[in-house]
Structure formats: C-alpha cells, structure tokens
Amino acid sequence: MNVVRRGQIAGLAAAVLFGCSAPLISTLTGAGSALSIAALLYAGAALALLALRALKGRSQTEAPVQRQDWPALAGLTLLGGVVGPVALVLGLARMPAASSSLLLNLESVFTLAIAVAVGREHLGRRGAASAALTLAGAMVLSGGSLSGASWLGTALIALATLAWGIDNNLSQHLSLRDPIQIATLKAAGASLPMLGLAVLLGHRFPSLPLSLGLLAIGALGYGISIWLDLLALRDLGAAREAVMFSTAPFVGALFSLLVLGDKLTPSLGLAAALMASGVALLLREQHSHWHHHEPLRHAHRHRHDPHHPDPHHDHAHSAEDLGDGVADGPFWHAHDHRHDETAHAHPHVSDVHHRHQH
After folding, report:
1. Does residue 357 register a pLDDT over 60?
2. Same domain assignment for residues 95 and 160
3. What is residue 132's predicted lDDT score, i.e. its pLDDT?
4. For position 44, what pLDDT does the model report?
5. Nearest CA to 135 among 232, 42, 247, 50?
6. Residue finishing a domain among 228, 263, 289
7. pLDDT on residue 93
8. Which residues pair with 298 in a beta bridge?
9. Cα separation of 104 and 99, whole Å?
10. pLDDT of residue 120
11. Is residue 194 in a domain?
12. 40 plus 186 within the same structural domain
C-alpha cells in the first residue's frame, strides 16, 4: 500500500470514529456538566493511547518529541484541547442545534485556508472540487440555516473552529514525530487540567456506569481517532486531511439512523451523494510535475528499500542509525538525516517534503 492511500484510509477511519462518537455523546449531555464530560472524554483518550503505546512498545521506527517541538505541542493542546471545547460549550448554549451544526463546518474551511495560505500546501482543481463537494454535503446535512443565531454564539463557535483549524495545522507539522506520543501528550494535557478544574469548581460528574461509557467513547472517538488523524496529516497534509475528516458529520448522521433509530431524511441522501462524490474525486487525484527541493535536515520515520529506492531518503547510515534494521532489505526507521538539494518529477501530495511553488 502506498503512503497516500494509507493516509486516506487513516483519515476516513478517524472520521468514522469521531463521527460515531458525536451522537453517542449527545445522549449523555444531561448526565453531568460540560466540563466534566469533556474531561472524561479526553481522559478516556489518554488511557487508550497509553494502553496502545504499552502494547506496541517504544517504537524504534518513530522520531520522539524533541525540545523544539514543545511550543507547537503546547499550542495545539491549549487551542484544540481547551480553547476549542470551552468556546464550543459556551457557543452551543446560545445557539439552536441546526445553526451550530452549520457553523461547525468552518473547521474544515479554516484548516484548508491556513494550510494553503500559511502552510504553503497545494490543492489543485480536483482537490478544490472535492473540498467543495464534501463541504456542500456537510452544509446540506446541518440544515443550511443560521436562523436564531446570536452574534455572540456565532463568534464563540467560529472561535472554536478557528482554534481547531490552527490545531490541525500544528498537528500536521508535529506528525513527523511519534504520533502515539503526540496524541497521548495532547490528550493528557487537555484532560488533567479539565478534571482538576471540574473537581475544584464542584461540577457534577455522571454516574459510574455513564462515566465508564464516556471513557470508552473518548478512547475510540478521541484517542484512537486523534492517532489515526495524525497519520493522515503526515501522509496527506492538512488540506487533504480536512476533506477526509469533513465526512464525520455524515458518519454521525448515518450512525444515528442505523443505531439510534433516527429517521431517514432527503438531506441525508443528498449529503451522502455529495460527500461520496467528493471523497471519490480526492481518491483519484494524481498530482505530478517537475519540482525543486531545497536542502533540508530533520528527523522522522521513513522507509528504505534497495529494490525501490526513495529519492528523498537516499542517504548513508551509521551503525547506530541502522539499529536492528537489515541494510540489504526493506525496513523502516527514524533518525536525523539530511536531504540534499534536488529536482525531479513524481506523484506527490503536500507532505512536509513537498511545500513548493506551483
């Protein structure tokens, strides 16, 4: 399986897990305060990621978090784990459900805009058409109306989606590091302060069975989903990941229909057609041209195959770099390495190695 296809599968899987979690959470919102519920969800995410890390063991093929990564990690934890959820809860209290659902689609718009304008990612005509189709499907699904919206509620939800859009782009930058480590630090960094604050403020927590249910929902819908989303960000870039993840509202609506007994509506069918068309268009995208690479030095997970060499990772190794790898066969590993200046043509997406002018 090539890297792009792997990223597409990871992105869709992340959207499925997150999309299924939303309707389940909506059935439990009255069981406790917004802060305590959010804290339990992120605590479940942290526990699941810690278990996954223990099961997999310390990876020798992933680059660990380094000192220069901490500011970005702190930023995405603050924005994605604190500012976004708090602004969302405050905004939802001032907004009807249909209007808030429509505004939540701004997350994909902000992610795309920041990735292209600031991150120098490229989204060609087919990618732009795919984004338009999936976002149109999300808007159809959420009602397409801002009736009853207050300016303060609108501003708060827009702030939440902007925070998550910045978080997604920071996460894409950090996805070169060990995704499980990044996701664990983010989940723990968000859950512990919220748990402590909820206890100090005397917020009501759900009963034990419901708390365990929220931990389970958080484990899959937030923990494993965050990890898969980081894999998609690494392989696809933030813009294309945003297209994949914007299918989450449809997944949530379909889950509500099949599991929770909601009624089938014409808007669900139309949204399904639009989103399926958008994802299919992106899956068939091929972007290839002659491009130039400036010299670059960094550390991340990469593959060596003497039979099918990667022009981006054709470098010499020391014995320490090789570790347990087999020098004469395909293997993955992570170490600090240099990319020499080069120019060539091949299919690619806007990953960290391909931020160039078009």
Report:
1. yes
2. yes
3. 81
4. 94
5. 247
6. 289
7. 67
8. 337
9. 9
10. 72
11. yes
12. yes
pLDDT at position 135 over 80:
no
**67 domain-assigned:** yes
For residue 193, what are its two tokens? 């302060």
Averaged pLDDT of the chain = 77
Are residues 238 and 312 located together in one domain of the fold? no
279 with 304, same domain: the answer is no
Structural domain contains residue 354: no
If asked whether residues 280 and 140 sit together in one domain, one would say: yes
pLDDT at 144: 60
Distance (Å) of CA 32 to CA 92, 205, 210, 215, 301? 16, 5, 10, 13, 42
Name the strand (E) or helix (H) holding 204.
Answer: none
Instruction: Specify which residues 339 forms β-bridges with.
Output: 296
User: Which pLDDT tens digit goes with each residue over 182-238?
Assistant: 889 989 988 998 899 889 989 999 999 999 999 999 999 889 998 998 888 888 877
Residue predicted with more confidence, 31 or 250: 31
> Does residue 224 share a domain with residue 112?
yes
118 and 256, same domain (yes or no): yes
Q: What is the DSSP string of 207-247?
A: PHHHHHHHHHHHIIIIIIHHHHHHHHHHHH-HHHHHHHHTT
Check: CB of residue 41 under 8 Å from CB of residue 221: yes
Domain count, the chain: 2
Q: Are 225 and 18 in contact (CB under 8 A)?
A: yes
Residue 39 is assigned to a structural domain of this protein: yes
Range of the domain at 195: 3-289
Which runs of consecutive H residues, i.e. helices, occur in the chain?
Answer: 3-26, 34-56, 70-78, 84-92, 97-104, 106-117, 125-141, 151-174, 179-200, 208-218, 225-236, 238-245, 248-258, 266-283, 319-322
pLDDT digits (tens, 9 = 90+) for 61-115: 777 778 888 988 899 888 888 788 778 767 766 766 555 555 667 777 788 888 8
Q: Tell me the CB-side half-sphere exposure of residue 294, using CA atoms within 13 A.
A: 6
**Token match 């795919």: residue?**
130
Q: Which residues of 314-325 are buried (b: 16+ CB within 10 A; e: fewer)?
A: eeeeeeeeeeee
Most confident of 130-139, 215-224, 251-260: 215-224
Q: 315 with 231, same domain? A: no
| Residues across the chain | 358
